[in-house]
Write a structure and sequence with these properties.
It contains 3 helices and 4 strands. It is an alpha+beta fold and 86 residues long. The strands form 2 sheets. It has a two-stranded antiparallel ribbon with strand order 1-2. A two-stranded antiparallel sheet has the order 3-4.
Length: 86
């Protein structure tokens, strides 16, 4: 999948942060999702359309994983923990 590299949210999360988030949310992310986030944290995909069950969907932006979502007033809104806790 191609993404706009100018939209990747840095710093990229490391394995330790991913484990903290998984414990906090009581989930286990699939390895493919972890790889996506470790490389393209919060990025906007260039190829953003996909079809499923006869319907077409668009991905506007990937969720990101931040160490401190409150310290980032823009990307903090897209942090996976903020979205899943509300």
């Amino acid at each position: 999948m191609r993404v706009d590299v100018n939209t990747i949210v840095f710093p990229l999360p490391n394995n330790e942060l991913l484990e903290v988030v998984e414990r906090s949310l009581r989930v286990s992310f699939p390895e493919t999702y972890k790889s996506l986030i470790e490389e393209n944290n919060g990025a906007v995909p260039i190829t953003n359309k996909f079809s499923f069950n006869g319907r077409e969907y668009i991905i506007e932006k990937f969720l990101c994983i931040l160490d401190d979502s409150e310290s980032d007033p823009i990307n903090g809104w897209y942090d996976i923990e903020v979205l899943l806790r509300k």
